[in-house]
Amino acid sequence: MGAVCPLRAFCAKRQMFWQKGERKPWRAFQLVRNKTELQNINNNLSGSYLLAGNIDESGESFAPIGNNEDGNNFTGQFNGMNYEIRNLKIEKPDSNYIGLFGDVGATGTVKNVGVTGGTIKGADYVGGIVGYNAATIKDVYNTGNVKGSENVGGIVGMKSQGSIFAANRHDAYSADVQKTRK
Q1: What does the H/E/C string look like for the chain?
Q2: Distance CA 177, CA 175 (A)
């Protein structure tokens, strides 16, 4: 595990994790421990986040993180620490930029997270992890249902630039992807 907290008491009190980053010697990551904290990433789309455990979204309707229809995209860092978001439900059949992350900008990173179960429905740019990607996506998977009318994918709906790296250990996972007519 690459995460280290040199001052554990300080980090626990502030609910932060410190991790050695590529661009900065040390970067503070906000811990995400529940549905509310996951959804609240929309309040700071340029922040750095670590998933602290599996999160079950059962029964909750989720608003994509960084939905470009609102003029905002996610430009921060998200490390799922190999945990899962379970039973994710997004039902916005007339909306674009739909996924756990609606739109990830060029400076963003999403890695080490799985989406299992659930249903994601949108119009254009619909993906199980990211609807529209211009960033780095690494070691992610999705086993839920993804439905949309244009640019639909199990991991990413549309990749304009950036990179996608998949982990071999997730090769057995697959999503049910359906393109529907408008």
Answers
A1: CCECCCCHHHHHHHCEEEECCCCCCCEEEEEECCHHHHHHHHHCCCCEEEECCCEECCCCCCCCECCHHHCCCECCEEEEEEEEEEEEEEECCCCCCECCEEEECCCCEEEEEEEEEEEEECCEEEECCEEEECCEEEEEEECCEEEECEEEECCEEEECCCEEECCHHHCCCCCEEEECCC
A2: 6
Segment 158-169, tens digit of pLDDT: 888 767 766 434
Kindly report whether the global pTM for this prediction surpasses the value 0.90: no
pLDDT of residue 13: 42
d(CA 113, CA 59): 20
